RNA sequence: GUGGUCGUAGCUCAAUGGUAGAGCCCCAGAUUGUGGUUCUGGUUGUUGCGGGUUCGAGUCCCGUCGGCCACCCCA
């Protein structure tokens, strides 16, 4: 174990990585706000108990958990939904329904890392609480699609596969399968796409034939038809397809469930979500009962997809390059002028300009090189010209002399922006 | 957690069991006030770590840690 590296599955974000991460966060936030969602944040550490029996063994078996110094069994959150359900149950009377909340945070799982899956990742969570109507499901799927579209991704790049757990519970009810077995059977159906057919058949027993037939024929229901219709009305039908093989591993889902994949089938799921109408009631012991639905989208797989699609990658690189640029580089050509330069640097920064300068005596050539590398649009040179300042437009290399008293106005004109902070 | 595979400078990679190298990056210069060019010089390794075989190990063997891939599983 070297101290020079982060722990397995954890990442450091160097400036370039951080810029890319912020690019993703900014778009997540922008699109969620476009849909009228408000941002919130929950605690990153929770009692381990919160996840037991609510999320399913999948997540609980891979919790990043430990005993704290107060002998509490705690876990770094693997997902947001249980926290959301708890918070909503405790505060629901403070808000009009439906709630439309989103959150951007870090989540943890203790498992062996692999491409696309680390022990830590960031995800966008968008949830709608207190709305039974299918319109909420349609809105949520549309939001999920629009989040990807804002990265320059199209229906040729990704697809949302949609299913309905009620489709399967109805299927099981018709065949008189006791409700206690539903969860278990749904898990088997969920895995059917990932394991050999005969192994699944063995687990399903005499249900194997009808299940396989249904998976093969694609499944169909009035609710799923209406869902697709709603998306078609928004012009988003090309982004979705019905796939009743999608069940999702989490035990708390009750209705519509969906997962988002890259069309090329190269990566694991980019996002996933669905309805969890009973979870809030379960966590509050029946004190509060509200229908709910939501989805989560992780940064790791999304980044991989963006890097894979040239259009999306270039858009990100362009935005990142633009964001790191400074506005003005101040060249101190004569050290006697340093104090005068710093006085004006302070004024420029107060006005909101991004300004940099050399902190120690530096050759002029190096200073211009630094200006170039920092992407500055303007260089201000303080030297023998004082009380005038030499203003250089770096892209055009044009120079002019401005009296230092008129500099702020001149700079403001150059950038064509207001001069208030 | 299981299996496979890999591990050499900050990065990308060389080095038939016989003295550890290149490019890039970084730093400093090229007669003292103008830019991603050019030239010169310079730093960096206990070859992931620990054992073993051998006259001699970056190279072969074992262990360990870490990366990648598959399984498991999937936020």
Question: Any idea what the CATH architecture of the largest domain is?
Answer: 2-Layer Sandwich
Strand content: 15-25%
CATH class of the largest domain: Alpha Beta
Report the major sheet: 8 strands, mixed
What's the name of the CATH homologous superfamily of the largest domain?
Bira Bifunctional Protein, Domain 2
> What is the alpha-carbon Rg in Å?
28 Å
Give the end-to-end Cα distance, rounded to a whole number of Å: 48 Å
- CATH fold name of the largest domain: BirA Bifunctional Protein, domain 2
Total domain units = 2
Secondary structure tally, helices: 15
Which secondary-structure class do the elements indicate?
Answer: alpha+beta
List the uncertain runs. Answer: none
Number of strands: 16
Helix content: 25-40%
Identify the overall geometry.
Answer: elongated
State mean pLDDT (0 to 100 scale): 88
Strand order of the largest sheet: 1-5-6-11-10-9-7-8
Layout of helices and strands:
Layout: H1 15-34, E1 38-39, E2 45-47, H2 57-60, E3 64-67, E4 73-76, H3 81-91, E5 99-108, E6 120-129, H4 134-149, E7 158-164, H5 165-174, H6 182-191, H7 197-204, H8 208-217, H9 222-233, E8 240-242, E9 256-262, E10 271-275, H10 279-283, E11 292-298, H11 299-308, H12 310-324, E12 328-332, H13 338-350, E13 355-356, H14 364-373, E14 378-382, E15 388-393, E16 398-403, H15 407-415
Parallel strand pairs: 1-5, 7-8, 12-13, 12-14
Antiparallel strand pairs: 2-4, 3-4, 5-6, 6-11, 7-9, 9-10, 10-11, 14-15, 15-16
This protein binds one RNA strand of 75 nucleotides through residues 1-2, 5, 8, 58-59, 61-62, 78-80, 107-109, 111-117, 121, 123, 191, 194, 248-250, 268-269, 271-272, 296-298, 300, 331, 333-334, 363-373, 379, 381, 383-384, 390, 392, 394, 397, 399.
């Amino acid at each position: 174990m070297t101290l020079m590296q982060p722990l397995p599955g954890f990442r450091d974000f160097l400036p370039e990585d951080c810029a890319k991460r912020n690019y993703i966060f900014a778009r997540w936030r922008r699109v969620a706000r476009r849909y009228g969602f408000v941002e919130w944040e929950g605690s990153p550490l929770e009692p381990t108990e919160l996840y037991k029996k609510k999320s399913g063994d999948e997540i609980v078996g891979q919790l990043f958990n430990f005993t704290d110094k107060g002998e509490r069994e705690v876990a770094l959150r693997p997902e947001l939904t249980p926290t959301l359900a708890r918070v909503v149950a405790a505060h629901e009377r403070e808000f009009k329904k439906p709630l439309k909340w989103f959150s951007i945070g870090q989540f943890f799982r203790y498992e062996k890392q692999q491409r696309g899956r680390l022990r830590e990742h960031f995800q966008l969570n968008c949830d709608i609480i207190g709305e039974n109507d299918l319109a909420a499901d349609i809105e949520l799927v549309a939001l999920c699609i629009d989040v990807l579209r804002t990265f320059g991704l199209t229906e040729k790049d990704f697809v949302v596969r949609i299913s309905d757990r009620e489709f399967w519970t109805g299927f099981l009810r018709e065949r008189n399968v006791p409700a206690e077995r539903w969860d278990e059977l749904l898990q088997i159906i969920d895995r059917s796409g990932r394991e050999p057919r005969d192994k699944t058949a063995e687990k399903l027993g005499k249900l194997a034939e009808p299940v396989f037939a249904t998976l093969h024929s694609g499944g169909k229901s009035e609710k799923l038809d209406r869902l697709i219709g709603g998306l078609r009305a928004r012009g988003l039908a090309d982004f979705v397809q019905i796939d009743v093989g999608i069940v999702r591993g989490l035990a708390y889902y009750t209705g519509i469930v969906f997962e988002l994949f890259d069309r090329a089938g190269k990566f694991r799921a980019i996002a996933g979500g669905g309805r969890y109408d009973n979870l809030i009631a379960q966590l509050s012991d029946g004190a509060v009962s509200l229908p709910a639905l939501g989805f989560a989208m992780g940064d790791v797989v999304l980044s991989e997809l963006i890097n894979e699609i040239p259009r999306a990658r270039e858009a990100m690189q362009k935005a990142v390059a633009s964001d790191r640029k400074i506005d003005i580089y101040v060249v101190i050509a004569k050290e006697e002028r340093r104090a005068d330069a710093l006085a004006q640097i302070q004024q420029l920064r107060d006005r909101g300009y991004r300004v940099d300068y050399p902190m120690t005596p530096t050759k002029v050539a190096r200073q211009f090189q630094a200006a170039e590398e920092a992407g500055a649009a303007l260089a201000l040179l303080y030297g023998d010209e004082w009380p005038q300042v030499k203003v250089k437009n770096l892209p055009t290399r044009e120079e002019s002399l401005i009296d230092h008293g008129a500099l702020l106005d001149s700079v403001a004109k150059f950038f064509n922006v207001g001069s208030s902070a």
